[in-house]
Specification:
208 residues, mainly alpha, 0% strand, elongated, Tetratricopeptide repeat protein, TPR-like_helical_dom_sf
Length: 208
């Protein structure tokens, strides 16, 4: 998050706080405030707000979802998974599956990560994060052909994202007749994010 985005969220937190002094039971405002507090990493305040929402509207499935995000940020992944699992049968199946895939990928449980990332990527609401994550999980297994369509979808949405360039480049250099295009994408990823990708790309193309 850049400074402009942070300032915008901070301003929104202030406005929501003002709104809630007049309408303390505004569920929508409370949930937005919790989301904003999570975005600026104020987890303790976010937890307090989510507890308020749970008291006012215990049926709101956004509460356990946001609590799972906080648990993941605090490295309490088992708790996060427990909170997310019941959400797989709700309208939040896409975002819950995505976060479960992230957790399992970080734990190197690749098959579980693969399954949940696929569920997330197949939702009608899927976008860049879902396509990129699934492509990354598939390329880790060297499933280049399977990964490429998802990497391509991610690229269509974000052609200057170094993570996208790296994963699609990896697919293409491992595909016959696509090596030149793959080389260009990998080198561009290294240019855009040298600290992250320069070493890896130099190892792939030692002569350059």
């Amino acid at each position: 998050m850049n400074a402009t985005e942070r300032d915008k969220i901070t301003a929104e937190i202030h406005d929501l706080t003002v709104t809630l002094t007049k309408q303390p039971h505004d569920i929508s405002a409370l949930l937005t405030l919790a989301t904003d507090l999570i975005a600026v990493a104020d987890f303790s305040q976010a937890q307090i707000v989510l507890a308020q929402v749970h008291q006012l509207a215990p049926e709101k499935i956004e509460v356990p979802y946001n609590q799972a995000i906080i648990a993941h940020q605090l490295k309490q992944d088992e708790q996060a998974l427990r909170l997310l699992s019941p959400l797989l049968k709700t309208k939040l199946v896409g975002v819950a599956s995505y976060l479960m895939a992230v957790i399992y990928f970080e734990q190197n449980q690749i098959q579980l990560a693969n399954a949940f990332a696929l569920t997330a990527a197949e939702q009608a609401t899927a976008g860049l994060p879902e396509y990129l994550l699934l492509a990354q999980i598939l390329t880790k297994q060297h499933l280049w052909t399977t990964a490429q369509p998802y990497a391509q979808k991610a690229y269509d949405l974000a052609q200057d994202d170094p993570d996208v360039l790296f994963v699609l480049g990896g697919c293409l250099i491992n595909t016959p007749d696509q090596k030149s295009a793959g080389t260009q994408l990998l080198k561009r990823a290294a240019q855009l994010a040298p600290q992250k990708y320069q070493t890896a790309v130099a190892a792939i193309f030692p002569d350059n």
